[in-house]
Amino acid sequence: MLSVLAVTFPFFALVLCGYLATRGGLLPLAAIPGLNTFVLFFALPCMLFRFGARTPIAELLDPAAAGVYLACGLSLVAASIALTRRRLGWNDAAFGALATAFPNTGFMGVPLLVALLGPAAAGPVILTMLLDMVVTTAVCVGLSRLDGGAAPGTADAGRARAARAAFGRALRGMASNPMPWSIALGALASGLQIALPGPLDRTVALLADAAAPVALFAIGAVLARAGMAAHPHEALLPRDGLGAALAKLVAHPLLVWGAGHGATAAGLPLAAPAHTALVLAAALPAASNVSLLAERFGAHTGRIARIILLSTALAFLSFSAAVALLA
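-> structure tokens emitted (327 positions)
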């Protein structure tokens, strides 16, 4: 366990540094968008491209791994919405479900799991990130619009139209996200065995090496900003968000663990290392970008920020325990 903590501690310590720097005023709130821009449009795409280019194409397009992970994620979304919709409404329930099912694979998971499991973990983890960005996010955004009103007698049709429109907006937003494109370019380079010219490769390497520390620091800054920006009318009870955070850290990896063993027993070709990577990806805390989506679509940002913050804080021990048990 101590050897696992020796690897995981620096990652969570950098998140804490970003959080404390923002809460203490050392990092101005106006600087956070600049950090996110650097990570999202420069450093992280370079890191994902390099991992994609170095990963066999079969590992990036593993149907067994994709099926197991996606089935578990959508099942968790359905269960979360079923338990919270009557109390919260479709909008808040859908984004709470997204926080429960979408791990922080981009900013935290890829570098952390590669450090723990080796380069072979990159393919399955990048695959989970693509599925969450493209499918899980679009489904939850579409469901969040089912609260939309419509004229008398056409409520169901109006809600369906609002959901379809939101689903399309989510897909368009994904298309403008550089991360899927960098993964696709990396996969293309892997499949065609293309290598970048030396000076360009070293530039990409410099940006890629900066991705993990800056991204982790930015996670802490975003979490601190979300807590500081919570509105008074978004008052929370002490227990709000705790159940979703525990579902993210416990129920999600257990679902993937059980489904993976079931798939293997049924004869699906899910390799043991890929299964381990999927389980540990599911054990990561909630993705910090869910709070940005929730704000954009008018959901309860305070509750989403609480889920992300609690899951990130608790993951230091829960994720380390999962690694000690599985890796």
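The chain has 13 helices and no strands.
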